[in-house]
Amino acid sequence: MSTEQWVPTTAHWGAYEAAADGNGGVQVRPHPDDPAPSALLGNVPGIARHTTRVQRPAIRRGWLTGGPGPSSQRGREEFVEVDWDTALDLVAAQLDRVRNESGNEAIYGGSYGWSSAGRFHHAQSQLHRFLNTIGGYTASRSNYSFGTSEILLPHVVGSSAAVLGYADSWATVREHTDLIVAFGGVPVKNTSVNPGGVARHSTAAATADPGVEVASISPLADDAPGGGRWYSIEPGTDVAMQLALGHVLLTEDLHDSAFLERCCTGFDVFAGYLRGESDGVPKTPEWAAGICGVEAVDIRELARRMAAGRTLVTVTWSLQRAVRGEQPVWAGIALAAMLGQIGLPGGGFGHGYGSMADVGGDGPVLQLPTLSQGANPVGTFIPVARIADMLLHPGAEYDYNGTRLTYPDIRLVHWAGGNPFHHHQDLTRLRRAFARPETVVVHETHWTATARHADVVLPATTTLEREDLGAGRRSTHLTAMHRVLDPVGEARDDFTILAGLAERLGVRRRFTEGRSARGWVEHLYTRWRDQLARQGHHLPEFDQFWKAGEVRLPQVPEDPPLVRFRRDPERDRLHTPSGRIELHSEKVASFGYDDCPGHPAWLPAERGGALHLIANQPRTRLHGQGDVGAVSRDSKVAGREPITLHPRDADARGIAEGSVVRVFNDRGACLAGVVLSDRLRPGVAVLSTGAWFDPQPDPQHPGQELCAHGNPNVLTADVPASRLSQGCAGQRTHVDVEPAENPLPDVKAHTPPPLTRRP
Ligand SMILES: Nc1nc2c(c(=O)[nH]1)N[C@H]1C(S)=C(S)[C@@H](COP(=O)(O)OP(=O)(O)OC[C@H]3O[C@@H](n4cnc5c(=O)[nH]c(N)nc54)[C@H](O)[C@@H]3O)O[C@H]1N2
Ligand SMILES: Nc1nc2c(c(=O)[nH]1)N[C@H]1C(S)=C(S)[C@@H](COP(=O)(O)OP(=O)(O)OC[C@H]3O[C@@H](n4cnc5c(=O)[nH]c(N)nc54)[C@H](O)[C@@H]3O)O[C@H]1N2
Ligand SMILES: [Mo]
Keywords of this protein's UniProt record, alphabetized (predicted)? Predict the structure, then answer.
């Protein structure tokens, strides 16, 4: 390919243009119309051909020689490269054996993860479709992003989509909103990203300068967008502040009784709790100040300002990714209900502003071209973050949203497009869990920690090495994703890999429907185009779209559920038992969970360890994706992931800027490189997720291991948000920090594992 042939493509960090560089690599440039291209684009050239790309199918030596079976050698052993036929024969034989001996329930195909952009080559959809054609699999439900809210919201507002599926655009906010009260702030660093990628980063542009007053409530100053006021709060205590704001609205008669009467139920119970009638503790600003560290006068003054104009109460998704993470979301809705502005433009409750590019985006809410996954004949599922519990405790029972579920007995794990050794908590425990199944199959583009913990690694292409079409939720355009590079080594796209397995299991035709990958891309587009045409929206034919590189998505009028509900609460009842917004839920109360009672409540969590660690999303990459790219590598300190400490906490421990520290707690330890900043609250440290997990012997503690690179998930606890949601609670934990002693282990995660080639 000529070096100057720039073609369109898209990634989760947005649509952009790419061209081969003439040396086998790729060069990139932003989309010419993008008002705020993502910094993450800078990782692309470095990751495309990095030495950690998986070149050939590879099999863990012990599994190849000893056959399937539980093994603590996963993640510790060398791999043998084999040809495709050998690898596919072995995997197909194990899928067949397990389903015949134990039924398809023994195959775990949840395969959570962000994979890459592209509507056809979406690894999970491909895998689920394939597994469904061979009799199904144990699935996972919801996600690590907002898995707690997704279970809570139907109890409160009738559906999760009512809140998560509709958010006022930044244009509406600028026009109508006077004040945004942002719990978790509005972190601009997150807003270039969404699944599929937006074509124009209007949200990132807007969040950098929201044009309205923002009260940013966060332990980190940098979560406040341009010009916003920073309310420094103790992590995990937002509910106390929210209740105190509610207490002021109640006792100063600033709440909207008419709205509460007309649209809500259970306010009497909640108000009694605010006054302290049920527990003897009035939730005054003075009470809250002692917990959350925000001054009582500031809380009181903020409450009065909230009642004085159009106010949007927002909660980032990070707040629910925590133990008892239901509470700040429910309390945020209760506050917005007291202000009476739910369903008004620019007012009410927003969830995920500053979490994702589509929240506040101005593209249409539109069904995009979608690959059908078929139906799963197996009904068994887990809430996604219970993966380690499931593998460790087959047959055990647990609570979930008012029901009791039982963990299945998993013998084979098949993962494509996700990295549990990035996303899950307590990675030492996850390693023990991954030792339990008989076979672990992973499709990966790179030698991630998950690939290293597999028995069979199948090399997948990246989006640059194949053709597809892509767009994110609320994107303005659909992008024609052209191929830029030849596949690395012997890599194949997930569709082709799975078609090879389907062939061996006698279902190739059912899986492929006789189409090639290009045939599918064209088919998905054309079928979608026909659907839109029936709704009166006329888009160009495939060839024209492909040549133009993108097509503008039609604007479809939307009437968000809460807007309709506010207009006529009797006609457009919510799908809650009362038909209204439930500030007290009799149903949730009836479950009897002490970690999620019937109304929003302050439920103090245990403190352990001197520093509160925030393990938030990384500014320099997407989760683990791009960690070997230039933007991520440039941010490392002494070759390790940066940990940000307050100078006060560093001084107290004799820790210097730029040095390497050992971060530790009861569960594990990692090394990290020190950055000092007074833009975070004393007592708080930040170690973002995504440094590739690098378990090695801990030189300071013989017999123990640490992550030499700085992955915070060796420290986070593998516990659910609550028995209601069983959601991921990985955002925060407690740790201590000490200077690391020499000799320091080298980081090995950015070089491939030991590989030999079978002659
Ligand atoms: N402590 C802590 N942990 C967290 C969080 C937190 O806040 N704190 N946040 C959580 C959240 S919100 C999320 S969403 C998760 C994210 O967790 P993941 O989504 O699992 O993380 P990614 O690194 O995006 O993993 C996607 C993988 O897919 C691979 N891949 C890309 N393209 C392809 C392809 O075409 N085919 C195949 N087969 N593979 C491909 C990439 O190489 C990458 O390894 O992390 C969670 N973990
Ligand atoms: N650059 C980049 N952007 C991303 C991602 C990425 O990996 N990289 N991941 C994407 C994904 S999958 C998701 S789900 C979203 C996640 O979106 P979020 O979960 O909202 O993002 P985080 O950065 O984890 O957390 C946002 C902020 O919440 C603050 N916070 C943490 N704990 C508390 C607390 O107890 N109280 C208060 N008030 N604030 C607190 C932290 O300071 C943190 O910076 O981000 C998306 N955007
Ligand atoms: Mo996420």
Answer: Metal-binding, Molybdenum, Oxidoreductase, Periplasm
Average pLDDT over residues 12-22: 96
Which ligand is nearest the CA of 325, by number? 2
- Residue 629: Cβ-neighbour burial (10 angstroms; 0-12, 13-18, 19+): buried
Q: Do the two domains 58-71+82-144+379-468+480-513 and 167-364+561-591 of this chain adopt the same fold?
A: no
The β-bridge partners of 440 are: 413
Beta strand ranges found along 192-263 (DSSP E)? 213-218, 229-232
**How far apart are alpha carbons 309 and 675 in whole angstroms?**
40
Residue with CA at minimum distance from ligand 2 atom 34: 235
Q: How far is the centre of ligand 3, averaged over its atoms, from the C-alpha of 403 (Å)?
A: 26
Mean pLDDT along residues 718-727: 98
Q: Is the CB of 727 under 6 A from ligand 1?
A: no
Residues 590, 582: Cα–Cα separation, whole Å = 14
Whole-number pLDDT of residue 509: 98
Tokens of 340: 């009476």
DSSP string over 658-727: T-EEEEE-SS-EEEEEEEE-SSB-TTEEE--S-SPP-EEE-TTSTT-EEESS--GGGTS----S-TTT--
Q: Which range is least confidently modeled, 22-36, 120-134, 196-210?
A: 196-210
pLDDT digits over 615-666, tens only? 999 999 999 999 999 999 999 999 999 999 999 999 999 999 999 999 999 9
* Angle, alpha carbons 677-730-224 (nearest 5°): 40
Edge-to-edge order in the sheet of strand 311-315: 229-232, 213-218, 179-183, 311-315, 348-351
Helix (H, G, I), strand (E, B) or coil at 129: helix
Closest CA to 184 of 423, 13, 351: 351
CA distance 313 to 325: 17
Q: Are 212 and 709 in contact (CB under 8 A)?
A: no
Q: Is the pLDDT of residue 2 over 60?
A: no
Give the tokens for residue 219.
């332990």
What residue ranges line ligand 2, CB within 6 angstroms?
145, 183-184, 187, 189-190, 193, 217-220, 223, 233, 235-236, 238, 316-319, 321, 355-356, 614, 616-619, 622-623, 731-732
Comparing CA positions, the residue from 203, 196, 209 lying closest to residue 553 is 196
- Nearest partner of 188 among 203, 167, 176, judged by Cα: 203
Under DSSP, the state recorded for 231 is: E
What is the mean pLDDT of the segment spanning 314-341? 98
CA–CA dist 547, 296 (Å, integer) = 61
| Residue pair 609/735 in contact by the 8 Å Cβ criterion | yes
Residue 735 Cα distances to 244, 608, 612, 668, 709, angstroms: 29, 8, 6, 10, 16
Report the top-level CATH class of 58-71+82-144+379-468+480-513.
alpha beta
Predicted local distance difference test score (pLDDT) of residue 759? 66
Q: Cβ neighbours of residue 710 under 8 Å, at least 6 residues apart?
A: 640, 641, 642, 643, 663, 670, 671, 672, 673, 687, 691
| pLDDT one-digit tens code per residue, 269-318 | 999 999 999 999 999 999 999 999 999 999 999 999 999 999 999 999 99
pLDDT bin (cut points 50, 70, 90) of residue 559 is: confident
Q: How far apart are CA 381 and CA 398, in angstroms?
A: 13
Say which CATH superfamily domain 167-364+561-591 falls into.
Answer: Dimethylsulfoxide Reductase, domain 2 (3.40.228.10)
Instruction: Confirm or reject CATH 2.40.40.20 for domain 611-739, answering yes or no.
Output: yes
460 compared with 363, residue with greater pLDDT = 460
Cβ atoms of 299 and 289 within 8 Å: the answer is: yes
Q: For 32-108, where are the alpha helices, taking DSSP H only?
A: 44-48, 61-66, 84-102
What does the domain layout of the chain look like in residue ranges?
Answer: 7-48, 58-71+82-144+379-468+480-513, 167-364+561-591, 611-739
Task: Express as a percent the part of the chain with pLDDT over 70.
Answer: 99
pLDDT in the model for residue 1:
45
